[in-house]
Specification:
Elements: H1 2-40, H2 45-91, H3 93-122, E1 133-139, H4 153-162, E2 166-181, E3 184-193, H5 197-201, E4 207-208, E5 223-226, H6 228-235, E6 245-248, E7 251-258, E8 272-275, H7 280-284, E9 292-297, H8 303-320, H9 322-330, E10 334-339, H10 340-344, H11 349-379, H12 382-390, H13 395-426, H14 428-431, H15 446-472, H16 476-484, H17 491-527, E11 537-543, H18 552-567, E12 572-578, E13 588-589, E14 593-594, E15 609-613, H19 617-621, E16 625-628, E17 642-646, H20 647-653, E18 663-666, E19 680-688, E20 705-709, E21 717-724, H21 732-742, E22 748-753, H22 754-761, H23 763-797, H24 799-807, H25 812-840, H26 842-846, H27 857-883, H28 887-894
Parallel strand pairs: 3-8, 5-7, 15-20, 17-19
Antiparallel strand pairs: 1-9, 1-10, 2-3, 2-6, 2-9, 4-7, 5-8, 6-7, 11-21, 11-22, 12-21, 13-15, 14-18, 16-19, 17-20, 18-19
Helix pairs in contact: 1-2, 2-13, 3-11, 3-13, 3-15, 11-15, 11-17, 11-23, 12-16, 13-15, 17-23, 17-25, 17-27, 18-21, 23-27, 24-28, 25-27
């Protein structure tokens, strides 16, 4: 009843406005005509206007009554259509249920994907005027593998002065600090920001203040702004927390502010913000990229203006430092200017768009399937339609009724689809979408509900279009006589339904091919040999405060005690530590050269990933030693500097030669290739297998990796790698206890097995695979239903023909083959069409694949076999029914 009332009110609203406009027009026209007649009779204009208004009274009353009658007629018409539509839906309940279920599945899938697309890609960042915030990211594609996204202190200094199209520029990055609370320690994620950062995000604290410019200077930076949740946890929401101190990594920081409860920018896990204080060297240094540099567009400014001004500044900097000019040019240096939101979602944007395209194809398949069902339902109502035409109902009247029925069905499907979408969004973890950037903003809200409503209307109109098209060809005599013969539709209807099935099969082939290619790609990634083991290894990170371990000697002693305690645990096979664990989020890279290496003209320097490792690390990770030796007790703090390179880096500098014993060096000044008294020489003592550091696909460290002994390159943030003979996850409590005995103030964090790291690195691909397989399965099911329906339709239409064939000697086997052949022709045309579409669309999926081609023959053949097998099952039943037709009964029934 509520649905009926809603339809009536919406329609009446539009009709009322139209009739109001018509009524106003008639009144104005009558008033103008009456005034002319009065003036022609000799009255003055004022007297004529008064007389016209008096005469208008009765006329207006008559028009208003007509207006009210028109509205009543509209209400009555809508009510009749709704009542008739609901009665028809109940009468053909099986057809109606299939249509509603089909649309619900397709609309639900599309709505769920749209909620992800809107929450991740389209919804603005949760700060005021977020679309004004842009990122300036330095890139060196020929020197550094992977995408650069950071800038240097010198860039920030210069851009604040030279890039006038921006305001409120700031630098920031994530940071980790150990929160010390008496006897315990906990690692917290926060951000280090310039004081201008709070102007950039335009969000004020709920208590206290933010940083001033003086607190961005060395020595004044020990202030902290807390998140609302950390303030509640540490101080119980007490406003008097302002002015009190907390200890972060051995330093006392004074609390000066508390941010609003739901404030988020870039990193939703950030619990605090501390000032970024640059040294004088950092303020002027270029190409030492460690921070994000963002700014707000001024009113009227554009990205192109910012890009032009940044390019001009970069060109001026090249002239300021001629020693680096050619090196920077050869590295392909450029600064990319982009909306900051685009950077946040850069890794998932393509996958989401691809999934949305797949969901759109699924909706189209569902609409075609529903259209076939609706055409079937309309065709069996031929006598009803013919009778109503004979009694004087116009085609327009019948079309309105058909459209109303289909819109009701689509709205019911949309409502059920919205419920399904809500359930899918609530179960994000099942698909892996909960690991995507901004996944916390994926939800069913008003915008998403309106999208579902729009899809429902669109699907309803598409489905209704086919029924109205069939209705337009209907004739009274043909309809009544056709029904009397038992026909269920004409040749045109049969051709239409066959066309719908062909379209379903072709689109299903495209979806299944995409899903199969992604499955094959995922399988190749799972099988890949990354250069290290993932089974049986536990990893755990820690951060060491400078207040307790100020120098290299203290850090080396701590490392020795820690590894001894871990190696003594039962079940531990080997253990080591590194500053660059594979499949982490960020890495350090640095330019390095081999002694005697001659660069070719135009060749770029390279800046591979590097890390510091302890003895035992390579054994714990299963990284093979290919030549030379591992780090050991000889590689102390005061020994000759040693280095181990991986196979890729060795092939770069010494192709076909043994690098062990050769020397390398890192630049010591602006002239990167110059060797002088300050050059730091490194002796290659070993070569290890190439390891895939950033992802299992092997992108991001194409230039290789090099390793230093931890004793010679101390870092305060490092990760333990522990090889165990049992379940690595069960070893975590023992490792925590062992480290607590070494130093209870050290917090272990990011405690995960290497298998978990590998699974996390594949999360986006797994989510896309799961959803695409779901879309493919649903589309296969819908295509099978469509094939079954059209063959059943053909059987009903040709029952008399089948009876005659059987009467003149045809066998059941021949009848069975006849109907199977009918289905095979439809499937064959659909497969050929789908293959053509897949050929055109191969570029859309190519960059999401690993180890397989976009048109991999084995995958396409497999999809064809699966689709053909399911199609055969779909047509076998109606073909079997046709083979069992009794000739006498069929001829008598059709006679």
């Amino acid at each position: 009843m509520r649905l009926r009332t809603l339809f009536a009110r919406l329609a009446a609203l539009f009709a009322s406005r139209r009739l109001d406009r018509e009524l106003d027009g008639e009144i104005e026209a009558h008033l103008e005509l009456a005034e002319r007649d009065a003036i022609a009779a000799g009255l003055s204009p004022a007297e004529a206007r008064a007389a016209a208004r008096r005469s208008l009274g009765n006329r207006t009353l008559v028009m208003e009554e007509a207006h009210e009658m028109s509205l009543m007629n509209i209400f009555e018409s809508i009510g009749r259509d709704l009542r008739h539509g609901l009665r028809s839906i109940r009468m053909y309940s099986r057809y109606s249920a299939l249509i509603v279920l089909t649309l619900a599945i397709c609309i639900g899938a599309n709505t769920a994907i749209f909620s992800a697309v809107y929450g991740v890609l389209l919804r603005p960042l949760p700060v005021p005027n977020a679309n004004e915030i842009i990122l300036m990211a330095n890139s060196y594609p020929k020197a550094v593998s992977g995408e650069m996204s950071w800038s240097s202190g010198g860039d920030y200094t210069g851009r604040r002065r030279a890039v006038t199209a921006l305001r409120d520029q700031a630098m920031f990055n994530n940071t980790f600090r150990v929160l010390e609370t008496g006897t315990s320690a906990e690692r917290l994620i926060g951000m280090v920001v310039t004081p201008s950062w709070f102007k950039l995000v335009r969000v004020r604290p709920v208590h206290g203040r933010t940083f001033d410019e003086s607190e961005g200077e060395i020595g004044n930076e020990f202030k902290v702004v807390l998140s609302h949740s950390l303030w509640q946890r540490l101080f119980g929401g007490d406003p008097r927390a302002i002015g009190r101190d907390i200890r972060l990594s051995g330093r006392a920081f004074t609390v000066i502010g508390v941010m609003p409860e739901k404030f988020v920018f870039y990193n939703p896990e950030a619990l605090f913000w501390i000032p970024l204080a640059l040294t004088p060297e950092q303020k002027e240094g270029l190409h030492s990229n460690n921070w994000f540099n963002a700014g707000r567009l001024k009113p009227g400014a554009t990205l192109q203006q910012v890009q032009s001004q940044v390019n001009a500044l970069n060109a001026a900097n090249l002239d300021r430092f001629p020693a680096m000019r050619q090196i920077v040019i050869n590295a392909g240096f450029e600064t990319k200017v982009m909306p900051f939101k685009d950077y946040v979602v850069r890794d998932i944007k393509g996958s989401l768009r691809l999934l949305w395209g797949g969901a759109g194809l699924l909706l189209l398949i569902g609409a075609l399937n529903a259209a076939g069902l609706v055409v079937a339902r309309t065709s069996v109502r031929t006598k009803e339609m013919g009778t109503r035409l004979a009694l004087g109902a116009g085609l327009g009247r019948l079309a309105n009724q058909i459209i109303t029925e289909n819109l009701v069905l689509s709205f019911l499907g949309g409502a059920l689809g919205l419920v399904l979408a809500y359930a899918l969004v609530r179960s994000l973890a099942v698909t892996g979408l909960d690991l995507l950037p901004r996944s916390g903003e994926v939800r069913i809200d008003g915008v998403v509900a309106l999208f579902a409503l729009a899809l429902s209307i669109l699907a309803g109109l598409i489905v209704a279009l086919f029924s109205v098209g069939y209705l337009a060809r209907l004739r009274i005599t043909g309809a009544l006589s056709g029904y009397s013969r038992g026909a269920t539709g004409g040749l045109g209807t049969g051709a239409l339904r066959k066309g719908l099935v062909v379209a379903q099969v072709s689109l299903t082939f495209v979806l299944l091919s995409g899903a199969a290619l992604m499955l094959a790609s995922f399988r190749e990634l799972v099988r890949v040999q990354p250069g290290y083991e993932t089974a049986g290894i536990l990893t755990a990170a820690t951060s060491v405060p400078a207040s307790r371990y100020p120098g290299a000697a203290e850090l080396n002693a701590l490392m020795a005690r820690s590894l001894a305690a871990i190696r003594a645990l039962p079940g531990v096979v080997s253990a080591g530590a590194t500053t660059a664990i594979p499949l982490a989020q960020t890495y350090n890279d640095g330019v390095i050269f081999a002694e005697g290496y001659q660069m070719k003209p135009g060749e770029s320097v390279i800046s591979p990933i590097y890390g510091a490792v302890t003895p035992g690390y390579f054994q714990a990770m299963g990284i093979r030693l290919l030549g030379g030796r591992d780090f050991d007790d000889r590689d102390t703090q005061n020994a000759l500097r040693a280095i181990i390179v991986d196979k890729r880096l060795a092939e770069r500098f010494w192709p076909g030669r043994d690098p062990v014993g050769r020397r390398m060096y890192q630049p010591s000044g602006p002239d990167l290739v110059r060797i002088d008294a300050n050059t730091r020489w490194l002796t290659v003592v070993g070569v290890v297998d190439a390891a895939r550091m950033q992802n299992l696909a092997g992108t991001g460290n194409e230039n290789g990796v090099y390793y230093f002994p931890f004793a010679q390159l101390n870092r305060r943030n490092f990760t333990f790698a522990v090889k165990t003979s049992g379940d690595p996850a069960s070893l975590a409590p023992a490792v925590r206890n062992a480290m607590a005995q070494v130093d209870p103030s050290l917090a272990l964090f990011d405690v995960r097995t290497m298998s978990e790291r590998a699974a996390s690195s594949l999360a986006a691909r797994k989510a896309a695979l799961t959803l695409s397989l779901g879309f493919g399965t649903i589309s296969l099911f819908l295509a099978a239903i469509g094939l079954y329906g059209v063959l059943s339709y053909l059987l009903a239409q040709r029952r008399r023909e089948v009876g005659i064939r059987m009467a003149v000697g045809s066998t059941p086997a021949r009848i069975f083959r006849l109907f199977v052949r009918e289905g095979a022709v439809l499937v064959g045309i659909g497969l050929a069409t789908g293959a053509g579409v897949a050929l055109v669309a191969k570029g859309a999926v190519e960059r999401f694949l690993y180890g397989v081609r976009p048109l991999e023959p084995s995958v396409l053949v497999g999809v064809t076999i699966v689709l053909a097998a399911v199609a055969f099952l779909a047509v076998a039943w109606p073909a079997r029914q046709a083979a069992r037709v009794e000739p006498v009964e069929a001829i008598r029934a059709e006679g």
